[in-house]
């Protein structure tokens, strides 16, 4: 086969190097965000399907670190931004990679945003957004109930390296949020759609309205509620994810994503000023391919996670335990979540049981894993097995005692990411037996 034939099989031809391009379209998805269906699963199905190099139903994995051009002049036009990935011109995989870019399009469609960029971890996504939006000496208003790593970033790292300060607030208190934002100084309002680990639900429409009135960019971490909530459709400007959790579903991948306006994501990829471009939290294309194969069944997985979490929450409450779950009618933000949630996806796959003391929490988790086979003592979430952790001494351990108390994290709070392995009744029987054993344990220690 001659070189001419081989080159004609490329997505762009020799003549494409001569034609003009529009750098502004670099990260725009194929469909306008406003034209995509509002149901996340339907939106995902509307994205252009990428075929493999030889017509395979699965896309090819582009593992090249660097890419060739047909004409030497093309290289300069690519670096100037005249030609870009929107027309299949790639320079270097730290900048853009075709396989990773396809995953980014899927994430943008799912969240209903113009663009997205996938990163090497959730913390990479969060850190890059903060550094891009908040300059040295800037101010952030954030929920006081956050993942421990995010809390540490805002309370310790950013003040030290860039004098960025954060005021932590109760995001369910809209007046407190409003008073904390200083017009002209506050750059970001940051919260989790469903908070880790206390499962408080953020009023995204009202928080977005307050932020926009003060000229503040509203950033929502939607790690706990993919498919369930669509923050951008409710007013948030930027949505971040730890893809490692529900979206991956296999507890075998570390990854993150930034979803938002094309103007913002493109600015984060600027050669001179872009936080993503210059810090380089690059996703491996092999990881991007893996994730692209899992996203089509995310809706099915989320529905089962959420269904089982609701059933278990109701039954645990009927047994007299202190259960926190947004799907329960006595949850403070139950009606709010119902008003925001996408239809038929449920109320989230996480529930919390407050065992009051760390000793009782540890006893129950130990029995559930090592005797009952109900789940695993491990951090993270979204796995097919139930994952359990005592939040105060694990994922929220970066917070001091006062911060935990303000956030509502008690010493005996068990966070359970409800899995879907086995049958529902099989898993419930295992959980119920462990609770019976706990009662016997408590009685023996009282006597």
TrEMBL record:
Question: InterPro entries, per this entry?
Answer: Cys/Met-Metab_PyrdxlP-dep_enz (IPR000277), PyrdxlP-dep_Trfase (IPR015424), PyrdxlP-dep_Trfase_major (IPR015421), PyrdxlP-dep_Trfase_small (IPR015422)
Q: Name one GO molecular function term.
A: carbon-sulfur lyase activity
Write out the entry's keywords from A to Z: Pyridoxal phosphate
Q: Which residues carry this modification: N6-(pyridoxal phosphate)lysine?
A: 245
**Single Gene Ontology BP annotation:** transsulfuration
Q: Which cofactor does it need?
A: pyridoxal 5'-phosphate
One GO location term (cellular component) = cytoplasm
Q: Where is this region: Disordered?
A: 1-24
- Compositional bias segments (type: Basic and acidic residues): 13-24
Q: Where is the composition biased (Polar residues)?
A: 1-10
Tell me which family the UniProt entry assigns to this protein: Belongs to the trans-sulfuration enzymes family.
* Protein name (Swiss-Prot/TrEMBL): Methionine gamma-lyase
Q: What organism is the protein native to?
A: Lupinus luteus
